[in-house]
Amino acid sequence: MVKIVETYHVPVLLHESIDGLNIHKGGIYVDVTFGGGGHSREILRRIIEAGGGHLYSFDQDQDAEANIKPHEHFTFVRSNFRYLKNWMRYHGVEQIDGLLADLGVSSHHFDDETRGFSFRFDSPLDMRMNKRAGKTAADIVNEDTEEHLADIFYLYGELKQARRIASLLVKARQQKPILTTQDFVSAVEPLFKKEREKKDMAKLFQALRIEVNHEMDALREMLLGCTELLRPGGRLSVITYHSLEDRMVKNVMKTGNIEGKVVQDFFGRIETPYALINNKVIVPSADEQEQNPRSRSAKLRIAEKK
């Protein structure tokens, strides 16, 4: 079985999201966000209970590899989920029966003082999910233009003061490089009102993290790849945490495209490859939200390939 480090990450909407996959005997399933392995473990348990099948789980973070153990029904793919189609082709898989995505950042990343995902700790301003490649958050903050920084904070953090934040950062980096989370916070803190400081700072860190990891591009490629891979009757089950990713998932499920452009047939029916399983988003129970604060902004959407 998959070996789990229970403190690594508490899975959100565990049973609801996996119920949505409608797991059956001989099915091929994909968990594109392995993390601590909580969702994967439950998917694998149900595959075995159903009489067999296979699970492919993706994660680009080498920390996640400590949570796996070889199993005949399980394959771990050390990669960004944006390469879903390529890896399925590599493994000889032409169609899948279900895909689960628990988007956002795991509690492990927020609690790791060395990764730079949280303003609770003074740590190197890194934020890379894949520590082996790509620009760090510090690289972006110190090298990108003021205009580009403003766009990042406005588009990905939905911060009204995006231009002023970018201006402060550029002035601060002219004095000395911004290398740690504390450097970053200190540079912009004067703009944040005390009553909203934590919320706005969280949005700021979210925006920078999204840019560092190219999260929107990766999500777009994964969703389009999944649409091609799912066999008729296959399920897509996605947990989102902020409006940008939720909008993209909703658009794909409702219209089959990222932009949400509605295409109608001769009779006025919307042409889409999916049928929605839940018309309203599924949210965690009050008990789950109490026990797992990360779940409070979670939304689950499930769709079936026509």
List the helices and strands and how they pair.
Layout: H1 14-19, E1 27-31, H2 38-50, E2 53-58, E3 74-77, H3 84-90, E4 96-102, H4 107-111, H5 137-143, H6 146-157, H7 162-175, H8 181-188, H9 197-213, H10 215-229, E5 230-240, H11 243-255, E6 274-276, H12 286-291, E7 299-305
Parallel strand pairs: 1-2, 1-4, 2-3, 4-5
Antiparallel strand pairs: 5-7, 6-7
Helix pairs in contact: 6-7, 6-9, 10-11
Strand coverage percent: 5-15%
User: Could you give a short account of the major beta sheet?
Assistant: 7 strands, mixed
Low-confidence sequence ranges = 1-7
Multimerization state: single chain
Terminal Cα separation, in Å?
A: 32 Å
Q: Secondary-structure element sequence?
A: HEHEEHEHHHHHHHEHEHE
Trace the largest sheet across and list its strands. Answer: 3-2-1-4-5-7-6
SS field, number of helical segments = 12
Give the tally of β-strands: 7
Indicate the structural class. Answer: alpha/beta
Rg: 20 Å
The helix content, as a percent range, equals: 40-55%
The overall average pLDDT, rounded, is: 90
**What is the 3D shape?**
globular
